[in-house]
UniProtKB/TrEMBL annotation, chain A:
Keywords: Electron transport, FAD, Flavoprotein, Mitochondrion, Transit peptide, Transport
Cofactor remark from the record: Binds 1 FAD per dimer.
Species assigned in the record: Psilocybe cyanescens
Gene Ontology process terms (BP): fatty acid beta-oxidation using acyl-CoA dehydrogenase
Main location: mitochondrion
Domain of life: Eukaryota
Domain Electron transfer flavoprotein alpha/beta-subunit N-terminal residues, every copy: 25-218
Cofactor(s) listed in the protein's UniProt record: FAD
Keyword Transport: yes
Location of the protein in the cell: Mitochondrion matrix
Stated role: The electron transfer flavoprotein serves as a specific electron acceptor for several dehydrogenases, including five acyl-CoA dehydrogenases, glutaryl-CoA and sarcosine dehydrogenase. It transfers the electrons to the main mitochondrial respiratory chain via ETF-ubiquinone oxidoreductase (ETF dehydrogenase).
The protein's name: Probable electron transfer flavoprotein subunit alpha
Automatic annotation (TrEMBL), chain B:
Residue stretches in coiled coil: none
Alphabetic keyword roster: Electron transport, Mitochondrion, Transport
PANTHER family: ELECTRON TRANSFER FLAVOPROTEIN BETA-SUBUNIT, ELECTRON TRANSFER FLAVOPROTEIN SUBUNIT BETA
Note on cofactor: Binds 1 FAD per dimer.
Stated name of the protein: Probable electron transfer flavoprotein subunit beta
SMART domains attached to this UniProt entry: ETF
GO molecular function: electron transfer activity
GO biological process: one example: amino acid catabolic process
Length: 349, 273
């Protein structure tokens, strides 16, 4: 009830042109051990499209933060870099990071109008927690945006129903800070430039005494192949691969011949053929490479949600009626155990 | 000295009635939404949440004092609650909104859940009656937002474990060990109760409700509440301007053999690395 009344007052104020603040985005810049995540570079590009100032926020343990700050200030469009180090920030626990963001965003001198991040697992955990505490929604997985400086409203598009519909929503000026996460494949990565005029500012960490959650361990699946989320080529396998050994034996040589990342359908992951982190789809990774090869994948709605923005889709499947052929640019009805080795051989020549 | 009494858990499981995952949805001609005159069922991630609550009871027996399902939605959402009751919930709450009303935004849902939790916990005679664990799906497959659980944890100031693929409850220690699915691998955390968990697909395989359980579920209590009972306003903060069809892809046809496939790849400028 309180919220409604304050909203009415606010819209009365913001109607006047002069009081609409110019956009100032805070980008939650993620890094793993000092290397900036590629998704965050897309978030920087999205933030720049708002047409105002862009501040990058770097948090972590002291050993990594400085290096990330040095990289961050060079990106085009970044006007300032805020950084905060604490041993507590070594792992991005939402319970520990949330107070820092709340302080930054609700301080009297805060001019932030937007909070932006990649749609990554850690930002997806953190941003909604912070936004709720500031009584604002989080708009997830944005694919395009437009800010109207006059009215202070921002319009976003985002996929709903596993990408089978596109929703266009407007966050009006009554939402003073607009939180959103961006789909990496929909925005180009921010480019580094030599001229850096970004101001660098240290922010005191907010220590959380006795946090309710403690990080124990992170296990990252190691691979020499390109990262699935950003690879320009992806070779994906489904249930038809039979087991983990044949999955590896059949797919990996082809992926290596193409310099491609390996993906998998949910069926393949659930059956234990491939690691969970390789799942492509509504509930896994969303990819949009130059080339996507779907091998032994039928093409369920949930899988298509994760790959149908790929430039060229190639499908190999025994079943001529598999739905994957409705989206594939090149389809081949055949047994993948015959086709894939032949393809690999001929590619190498 | 005797050890302190074993904690009793009260689990709240929010569920959502959404368009069935297998339905190919259609955008309506007015471009205001999708045609909802199709099969609906419980959001798949919520089924996993209900199942996990039932598994916790199987493992910890009497330590799980109650499992309560809750939904916010039109009158038909009661079917979704009955499904949850048939899968193992003891009782349910239905916050009823009119058939024509838009689906509430996640923040309003989180505030509703907080209000329900605070109401029950304020009325609780002892800690044994307080809700101390909320298990939700990691996202609804209709709006695909995936934010409600985190918002609820934020509002309550509780610990949160998102995208859980394994949950180990230690009742004596008042702790939950959770393995989470993160980009590139897994993450292990230890959380103190009370807390919020959001489920990943790999947490468990939901059971089918058997006919006797479906019959029994009909007798389980469903409390009906209205948004005003809880003091919640469902006016959306965001304005949906348009819902449209995504650009459609047209299949490019089939090739007869590997050589033709290679030729197509070459045409697109793709060669061996």
């Amino acid at each position: 009830m309180l919220r409604t009344s304050s909203k009415i007052c606010r819209s009365a104020f913001t109607r006047s042109y002069a009081t609409t603040p110019s956009p100032h985005a805070l980008v939650f810049l993620e890094h793993r051990a000092g290397i900036i995540d590629s998704g965050s570079l897309s978030a920087l590009t999205a933030a720049e499209q708002l047409g105002g100032k862009v501040s990058a926020l770097v948090v972590g343990s002291s050993e990594h933060v400085q290096g990330v700050v040095d990289q961050a200030k060079k990106f085009k469009g970044v006007t300032s870099v805020l950084h905060s180090s604490s041993p507590q920030y070594a792992e991005p626990l939402p319970e520990v990071l949330s107070p820092l963001l709340e302080k930054l965003l609700s301080g009297a001198d805060s001019s932030f109008t937007h909070v932006v991040s990649a749609t990554s697992s850690s930002a997806k955990s953190l941003l909604p927690r912070v936004s709720a505490r500031l009584d604002a929604p989080t708009i997830s997985d944005v694919t395009s945006l437009e800010h109207d400086a006059g009215s202070g409203s921002t319009t976003f598009t985002r996929p709903i129903y596993a990408g089978n519909a596109i929703s266009t929503v407007r966050a009006p000026s009554s939402i003073p800070i607009k939180f959103f996460t961006v789909r990496g494949t929909a925005f180009a990565a921010a480019a580094a430039s030599d001229a850096s005029e970004a101001e660098v500012k240290a922010v005191d960490p907010v220590e959380v005494a006795d946090p309710p959650t403690v990080h124990v361990k992170t296990t990252i699946a190691k691979s020499d192949r390109p990262d699935l989320g950003v690879a320009s080529r992806v070779v994906s396998g489904g249930r038809a691969l039979k087991n983990a050994e044949t999955f590896e034996k059949t797919l990996y040589p082809l992926a290596d011949a193409l310099g491609a990342a390996v993906g998998a359908s949910r069926a393949a992951v659930d059956a234990g053929y491939a690691d969970n982190s390789l799942q492509v789809g509504q509930t896994g990774k969303v990819v949009a490479p130059e080339l996507y090869m779907a091998l032994g994948i039928s093409g369920a709605i949930q899988h298509l949600a994760g790959m149908k923005d790929s430039k060229l889709i190639v499908a190999v499947n025994k079943d001529p009626d598999a739905p994957i052929f409705q989206v594939a640019d090149v389809g081949l009805v055949a047994d993948l155990f015959d086709v894939v080795p032949e393809l690999t051989e001929k590619l190498k020549k | 000295m005797r050890p302190s009494a074993i904690r009793l858990l009260n689990i709240l499981v929010p569920v959502k009635r959404s368009v069935d995952y297998a339905v190919k949805i259609r955008v309506n001609p007015q471009q205001t939404g999708i045609d909802t005159n199709v099969k609906h069922s419980m959001n798949p991630f919520d089924e996993i949440a209900v199942e996990e609550a039932a598994i916790l009871r199987q493992k910890h027996k009497d330590a799980v004092k109650s499992i309560k399902a809750i939904t916010i939605g039109p009158p038909k959402s009661v079917d979704t609650l009955r499904t949850a009751l048939a899968m193992g919930a003891d009782s349910a709450i239905h916050v009823e909104i009119p058939e024509s009303a838009a689906s509430p935004e996640p923040l309003a849902v989180a505030k509703t859940l907080r209000a329900v939790i605070e109401r029950q916990n304020a009325a609780a005679a002892s800690d044994a009656d307080k809700i101390d664990l909320v298990i939700l799906g990691k996202q609804a497959i209709d709006d695909d937002l995936g934010v409600t659980g985190q918002m609820l944890a934020g509002l309550l100031g509780w610990s949160q474990a998102t995208f859980a693929s394994k949950v180990d409850l230690d009742v004596a220690k008042n702790e939950v060990f959770v393995v989470r699915e993160i980009d590139g691998g897994g993450d292990e955390i230890r959380c103190k109760l009370p807390m919020v968990i959001t489920t990943d697909l790999r947490l468990n395989v939901p059971r089918y409700a058997t006919l006797p359980n479906i019959m029994k579920a009909k007798k389980k209590p469903v409390e009906k509440l209205s948004p005003s009972d809880l003091g919640i306003d469902y006016t959306p903060q965001l304005e949906t301007l348009k819902v449209s069809e995504p650009p459609s892809r047209v299949g490019g046809g089939k090739v007869a053999n590997v050589d033709e496939l290679l030729a197509k790849l070459k045409e697109a400028g793709i060669q061996a690395a």
